[in-house]
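DM from R.C. (forwarded with permission)

"hey, sorry to bug you on a friday — could you get me a structure for this? deadline for the figure draft is monday and I only need the backbone to look sensible"
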Amino acid sequence: QVQLVESGGGLVQPGGSLRLSCAASGSIFSINVMGWYRQAPGKERELVAVTTSGGSTNYADSVKDRFTISRDNAKNTVYLQMNSLKPEDTAAYYCHAKITRRNWGRLREDDYWGQGTQVTVSS
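My reply, with the result:
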């Protein structure tokens, strides 16, 4: 059993900052990719930022230079520091991870999602 538990969402004024956290727990062999997606009402879920176990990162153009993704491999935790927030950043933010588990003596990688945390940017 694997769980991704997010925290850190909330209401913030335009120009403000928030930090999201996502901790993976359970029977984990390794974690390759960890990242954040978001979904606004009436829109499709979109990639915000991802990071690999090797430390490489990728960002959506709309958040470059404002958001920073980081990761603590020892804690199986990924963070998203969000600065200079805009009303258009309002969405439910979801943590995602590609996690390898040992299953009947074999290694198997699956996708896991958190339950989502709401970020609202409004004055």
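R.C.: lifesaver. The radius of gyration is 15 Å.
me: no worries. The mean pLDDT is 96.
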